[in-house]
């Protein structure tokens, strides 16, 4: 089987399974490997503004069953993983990237290396900095207006834009994780039905952190599949230009 066929098999097998076999436990090594793969997911500017909370103990899983509104996927899961966005870590992660670049430089930095250092030292603060008065947002709006007046330019200004960006990256990691679990012979159910405020409290997260999704993991059952995987026709959603 070539890589294309193997990937086809994984994608076609992956389904959101809402009821797991409680007699079959997913080995810790499977979750570990899948989280390691998730960390390799593409993300905006390699800022990696995410955290993954592996809910392993039976006591905490019982707590999260309630926080996930009693969903059968949460109740029967072998493991739960909470995917969290952390745009409040942008300063530390920018510096981490700068340190990585500097550690690879021998002698005088090249133009490419200088651009990379400026990217994390100048551009990332412009994109992510916030303040109580909203001056940072006004500066971004002004830059967008001037630079984008007659030319294509990234339209990025307020906190909503930051939230969208970090949630996209985090969701990519969650998808990598779910495909990995499928490749290991187990099943997942991504859940949006949960009390985000109480989940943040349970994880002791600051206000700036947000819950992207919670993924339940286990060995799926037939009754956990609620029906055929129906999708709109290709021609209704794909437009070749």
Automatic annotation (TrEMBL):
Q: Which residues form the Nitroreductase domain?
A: 12-219
Q: Which UniProt keywords apply?
A: Oxidoreductase
| Transmembrane stretches, start-end | none
Q: Which family does it belong to?
A: Belongs to the nitroreductase family.
**Protein name per UniProt:** Nitroreductase family protein
Tell me which species this is from: Aquirufa aurantiipilula
């Amino acid at each position: 089987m070539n890589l294309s066929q193997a990937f086809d098999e994984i994608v076609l097998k992956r389904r959101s399974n809402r009821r797991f076999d409680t007699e079959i436990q997913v080995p810790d090594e499977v979750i570990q490997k899948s989280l390691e793969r998730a960390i390799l997911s593409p993300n905006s500017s390699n800022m990696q503004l995410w955290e993954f909370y592996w809910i392993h103990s039976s006591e905490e899983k019982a707590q999260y069953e309630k926080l996930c509104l009693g969903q059968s996927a949460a109740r029967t899961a072998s493991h739960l993983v909470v995917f969290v966005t952390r745009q409040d870590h942008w300063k530390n992660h920018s510096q981490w990237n700068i340190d990585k670049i500097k550690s690879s430089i021998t002698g005088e930095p090249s133009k490419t290396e200088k651009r990379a250092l400026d990217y994390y030292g100048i551009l990332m603060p412009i994109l992510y900095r916030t303040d109580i008065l909203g001056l940072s947002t006004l500066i971004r709006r002004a830059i967008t207006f001037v630079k984008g007046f007659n030319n294509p330019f990234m339209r990025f200004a307020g906190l909503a834009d930051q939230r969208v960006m970090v949630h996209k990256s985090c969701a990519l990691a969650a998808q990598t994780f779910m495909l990995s679990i499928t490749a290991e012979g187990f099943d997942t159910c991504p859940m949006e039905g949960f009390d985000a405020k109480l989940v943040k409290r349970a994880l002791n997260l600051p206000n700036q952190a947000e819950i992207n999704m919670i993924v339940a993991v286990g060995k799926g059952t037939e009754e956990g599949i609620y029906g055929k995987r129906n999708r709109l026709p290709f021609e209704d959603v794909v437009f070749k230009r």
